[in-house]
Amino acid sequence: MLAAERQSHILLRSQALGVVRTRVLAKELGVVEETIRRDLDKLAELGALVRVHGGAAVNDFGHRDLAYEEREVSQQKEKVAIARCAAQAIKVGETILFDASSTCLQMAKLIPPNLRVRVVTYSLPIFEIFKDRKQVDLVLLGGDYESRGRRFGGPLTEEGLLSCRIDRFFFSAKGFDTTKGASEANEEQARLKTVGLIRSSWGALLVDGTKLGSDSSYHFAQTHELSAVFTDELGGEYFERAPLRESRKVTIAD
């Protein structure tokens, strides 16, 4: 296959997925990873893609707030593995705050039906998972509803969150860098996560490797504010090269 044909395939995949991985592209195209890296570097030079850890993304991916449907299908296998790993941290009787991320949605699906917890969220899909569970004390934080993200935000949501006492806060991010911290593409959602961390005794970042080493528009947490990080195999490679000071914070989902 000619370089132009490979690069055309890479562009089509990146436009469909937002982020593409070097390893996956190499398998799809039947070439070694080094060939894909050269293709990605060339496309980045042309301004068609932006290089991220383990692959590349469409130019505005790090700063574009994806719709709910886009987030739900992106890196789904990795998100399920991360969610399964993070769910083990929840203890009976705790008050849990879930953000409106697709990774937390996967995590909510994994909570055992008979587990007695209090769930606080501003995500409509997560609310729908728990609404009929008798063992769950459920709080939906209302406010300005954003249909594109199927979530609430704004001053009323922040005010409601400020009145809550949270044991564990699980959240994702658009980008994370060990120096700059966690960031979001949506200002309202970034503010909510800042408030969530203030009101929580323990906060965990759930992030797949494609978001590591990248930076988005609105920062909401520094590295020292994180109690734990749950990531995938690709994320594990990133943290080997850019470790947190407290290595115990990072858990790699398999």
UniProtKB/TrEMBL annotation:
GO MF term list: DNA-binding transcription factor activity
A Pfam entry, by short name: HTH_DeoR
Gene source species: Roseibacillus persicicus
Alphabetized UniProt keyword annotations: Repressor, Transcription, Transcription regulation
Domain of life: Bacteria
Record's protein name: HTH-type transcriptional regulator YulB
InterPro entries for the chain: Carb_Metab_HTH_regulators, DeoR-like_C, DeoR_HTH, NagB/RpiA_transferase-like, WH_DNA-bd_sf
Ranges of residues in domain HTH deoR-type: 3-58
Keyword Repressor: yes
